[in-house]
Specification:
Blueprint lengths: L1 E11 L13 E12 L3 E6 L6 H8 L7 E6 L2 E2 L4 H6 L1 E4 L11 H11 L4 H14 L15 H13 L5 E5 L7 H15 L7 E6 L2 H7 L2 E6 L2 E6 L1 H8 L4 H10 L6
Parallel strand pairs: 3-8, 3-9, 6-7, 7-8
Antiparallel strand pairs: 1-2, 1-4, 4-5, 9-10
Helix pairs in contact: 3-4, 3-5, 8-9
The structure holds adenosine-5'-triphosphate (ATP) and magnesium ion.
The site of magnesium ion has 4 residues, from helix 1.
Length: 259
């Protein structure tokens, strides 16, 4: 279970370098984000470029500190107890960040070690995840030179090595081909079922079909704010549309009308 309440984050513009007169000193990346994601469900964070999705997920993953607001993972306050919160969370960030000199297996097992897993347990988990993600042939290869999809699979396996109850993914299908996208969607769907552990899954995207196909619930983000939330049918009803793309445009950009 993931809860986010009135989150805010301002980035300072770089001090050095040329800054034309009138250029903003700061960027309000997240202004007011609130949502809840429950166990056994996939929650999509949908928003246009620059809406603040990555920033929100990075705060949840304790990679950056919010300026205001509260975040809890399984009731654990992320700011107060980041390690306890992350022990219950798998994170796939936008920068896939693998060690190029290690094989895929070593990357996964090493990360298991960081999460306090005994080596043989991490090895066994690497095997099981390689099966699930259809990446067995990759295990003994160094990740240097991996394609986008291969990198994503390895990073996902690494994020899931400690069998976390909560899974946070930033644009997980970015750069994946049709088959890999399907495989990933199926894996995520399965992870949300009771057999897969009824995980709480939150992912960001700006792909409509992904949201329609994959999400149990959608949180729409625009200009750093969460502006709407609900199931796809609920959002259609709320916006008075019957096409989801149109509904999204209304919900995400509707605020700008008449400005
Ligand atoms: N490190 C940073 N320094 C300064 N500004 C930043 C930084 N990271 C993000 N921003 C700004 O904060 C805003 C929100 O960015 P963020 O990456 O969270 O958006 P996003 O919703 O993930 O967008 P996208 O769909 O393009 O990935 C943007 O205006 C962005 O330029
Ligand atoms: Mg992003």
């Amino acid at each position: 279970m993931i809860e986010v309440e009135r989150l805010a984050k301002v980035y300072a513009a770089p001090r050095s370098g040329f800054r034309a007169h009138g250029t903003a000193r700061t960027v309000q990346a997240v202004a007011d984000a609130s949502f809840a994601a429950r166990d056994g469900a996939i929650t999509g964070l949908l928003g246009p470029n620059g809406a603040g999705k990555t920033t929100t997920l990075r705060m949840l993953a304790a990679l950056i500190r919010p300026d205001a607001g509260r975040m809890a993972i399984d009731g654990i306050d992320v700011a107060a107890q980041p390690y306890a919160a992350l022990a219950r969370t798998g994170v796939l960030s936008d920068a896939r960040g693998l060690y190029p000199r290690l094989t895929a297996r070593e990357n996964i097992v090493y990360y298991g070690g960081l999460q306090g897993m005994p080596r043989d347990a991490a090895e066994a988990r690497a095997e099981a995840l390689a099966e699930m993600l259809d990446m067995r042939p990759l295990l003994e290869r160094r990740t240097e030179g991996f394609s986008q999809g291969e990198r994503m699979k390895t990073a996902l396996a690494r994020a899931l090595v400690h069998d976390p109850a909560n899974i946070i993914l930033d644009e997980p299908t970015n750069g994946l081909d049709v088959l890999a996208t399907r495989a990933l969607r199926e894996s995520l769907r399965w992870l949300a079922t009771p057999a897969g552990g009824a995980k709480c899954i939150v992912f960001s995207t700006h792909i409509m079909q992904e949201v329609e196909r994959l999400c149990d619930r959608v949180v729409v983000m625009s200009h750093g704010r969460t502006v709407a939330a609900g199931t796809v049918p609920e959002l259609l009803a709320q916006s008075g549309q019957d096409d989801f793309e149109e509904a999204f445009v209304r919900l995400a950009f509707g605020m700008e009308e008449g400005r």
